[in-house]
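Supplementary Note 2. Why include the ligand at all?

Several targets in our set were suspected to adopt different conformations when bound, so apo predictions alone were not considered sufficient. For every target with a known small-molecule partner we therefore ran a joint prediction. The input for tryptophan is given below.
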Amino acid sequence: MVDEKHVVTPWDVSGAVDYKRLINEFGIEEIGPELLKRIEKIAGKNFMLDRKIFFAHRDLKWLLDEYDKGNKFFLYTGRSPSGPIHLGHLMPWIFTKWIQDAFDCELYFQFPDEEKFLFRKDLTYEDAQKYLHENMLDVIALGFNPKKTHFIINTKHADLLYPEACKVAKKLTYSMVKSSFGLDESSNVGQIFYTSMQAVPAFLPSVIKGKKMPCLIPYAVDQDPHFRLTRDILPKIGHHKPASIQCSFLPPLTGMDGKMSSSKEYTAIYSTDTPKEVERKIKKYAFSGGRDTLEEHRRHGGNPDVDISFQYLKYMFEPDDKKLREIYNSYKSGSKTSGELKQIVIEKINSFLKEHQKKRELAKKKVDDFIYKK
Ligand code: TRP
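The joint prediction is reproduced in token form.
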């Protein structure tokens, strides 16, 4: 979807993202209270669902009906290596791990290591390979079950993917791709083919195991065009339409518009940032909903709804609803200052990253266990 103030495509997210509008334009469904209860009954509570960070879906009811009948689903998500991992990437993967544990399912994690090479002028193939390795470490560090998690690397598993991608590609016309992604005559032919590669893991396990299995794809909502096309095509080649669940974007440091960007240091906190860097970035860049002077802040209070430190607590770092509400109220009333709020989030992020970085080091020995083997 593109207009002047609001852009959400797989290549660009900018402006104030209007999620209600996306629900209509993309034809996804809001996750209502009934569905929430149904998930909770099986899997327990999840704050990202309760807080509507994961806010929409396709065919979740069908997926749960199948699950109730004993027909287990597998998970599929992915990451196209193009730069360092930041908190905005980790957020949906943390949720994916929660689903994997709660529903005890297999996860196919795709690394399309050709995607950003094809789509970005400035990214070389060799740099994408370097990031591929780095990015895999971050995924492993989140604690996915190695017995049930399979990395599919597009250029390394080409023998598995390519025959299936061709079956998708045969049903996908240039005009479908063109209108979904805004490609044109000057787009390279790799870009035109690419969606066929991203579609494959949504049914690859069914091919491997020789039986049709339901699939659930968690993703940030900008990936939706790929999966709208995927859902169109799959029934035509004998597979289920994948179910999906969409999340909103962790806002960048600079404020509520757009999303974190790997290439813009002032928008993002990277998984490898040191405690000092985190402190510097939050203090210097994290947009504050506080008032100009302490006196005004005490009198009128701050605005947590636009305050980036508060948003990070809400999205990732304060799972306890009661504690989050207390912070919300004390900031809004002016009893908590911006400086105090920033201090809370700095400590939370740093204690998360300390653990993450430890596990990321250990992951260096585990990469091989995660790469899919026939
Ligand atoms: N296109 C995604 C990216 O730019 C990578 C990706 C591949 C993906 N398959 C996916 C993301 C499935 C979410 C779900 O990073």
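The CA atoms of residues 151 and 371 lie 5 Å apart. The chain is about 50% helix and 10% strand. Comparable summaries for the other entries are listed in the accompanying table.
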